[in-house]
Amino acid sequence: MAIKNRHSMNLFTRGVLVLFLFITITAKAQDIHYSQYYLSPLTLNPALTGDMDGTYRVGAIYRNQYGSVTIPYVTPSVFADFALFKGGKSKSFLGIGFLVLNDQAGDGDLENTTLMYSMAYHQALDEDGFWHLSIGLQGGYVFKTVNVNALTFPNQWNPFLQTFTNPPSENLVGSDSYPDFAAGLAINGSPSRYSLFTAGVGVFHVTTPTETFMGSSNTIGMKYIGHVSGTIGVHNKLYIFPSALFIDQSPNMEFTAGSSFGINFSQQNGVIGTIFYIGAYDRVTGNDAIIPTIGFIIHGLQVGFAYDVNTSTLQAASGGQGAYEIGLIYTGNIKVHKPDQKYYCPHFY
Q1: Smallest Cα–Cα separation from 97: which of 336, 302, 329?
Q2: How far apart are CA 150 and CA 298, in angstroms?
Q3: Domain containing residue 160: CATH number
Q4: Burial of 139 by CB count in 10 Å (0-12 exposed, 13-18 middle, 19+ buried)?
Q5: pLDDT at 108
Q6: pLDDT at site 171
Q7: Contact present, 245 and 254 (Cβ < 8 Å)
Q8: Is residue 343 one of the residues assigned to a domain?
């Protein structure tokens, strides 16, 4: 009886994993997303391209998810963007950038490699350049592959050998590619010397591209992102970084909100030295996860770490272990120039 129960559990577990992979490949599921979305501006909104306190910015982020349930879902990405014609009399400028994203999911090694180019125009709304209205476009190509040999299906189960041995009858296609586009709008500014405000909306997959796997086609629905964030500085010593993110990609929705709190260790008035911050965010939709964060900002470098504590129904399988992320952004100047007076404090999107 014990052996039979163990076999039943193994069969059930495999069935769940196969179903989970099948859903990953064929369903109209949400795109990849980062808990530290403020460290990945080009996946958040194309209108944020080039929006920085400097002339160039490079960043990278790595996410590892579901490692306690199955083969981890791994999502690294890197980006770089540049602010062109910044510091002119008009206070308006142009941003250009590129993004390379890779996502490896589950037992079937479903892999998504995305190459995107972005451009944004930042129109000054006041003569000092404290406020800007930004519009951005993004376009590129998506490449998807799946390791067909790693997949198993119910019709492969051999009841005599008690294992998956029969050849599959499914008509599988191991790769696909398609162009993809996005657009966005944002407004940002500095209401006071130690405060910032940013709000925006982005629309991804605007042409609703079609991907083909397993002999059938799946139309990728548009994804809508709304985001709002702020930086509130108290005498340049204490900082509060509240933010909220809303994602809608039918039939899925996500709402995340929270705040980080930072301390500026600089002893000089008006100088941003080393800022250490700690905070927590809640992915509210579906009671999904609590996300504690920790990080620091120093000399244009921001490094952050986050961990998703799973609180959804998946908790029974995950034991509360969701995902961990580490990300960094470095902002600098290609040439020495008078600092842009728009920003007086750290920028969290």
Answers
A1: 329
A2: 45
A3: 2.40.160.60
A4: middle
A5: 58
A6: 55
A7: yes
A8: no
Nearest in space to 305 (alpha carbons), one of 287, 320, 323, 321 = 323
Are residues 10 and 99 in contact, defined by beta-carbon separation less than 8 angstroms? no
Residue 75, domain member (yes or no): yes
Report which of residues 337 and 94 the model is more confident about.
94
- Has residue 62 got a pLDDT over 50? yes
Residue 170: give the domain boundaries. Answer: 2-332
Q: Which of 6, 10, 97 lies closest to 58, judged by CA?
A: 97
Nearest Cα neighbor of 47 from 173, 132, 131, 109 is 132
Number of domains in the chain: 1
For residue 8, name the pLDDT band (cuts at 50, 70, 90): very low
pTM over 0.90: no
Torsion angle in degrees (nearest 10) through CA of 107, 108, 111, 112: -100
Contact 196, 347 (CB under 8 A): yes
Q: How many residues does the chain have?
A: 349
Structure tokens at 188: 């940002």
Residue 315: other Cβ atoms inside 10 A: 15
Here the tokens at position 333 are 């100047």
Helix then strand count (H, E) for the chain reads 3, 18
Q: Six-digit token pair at 62?
A: 């790595």
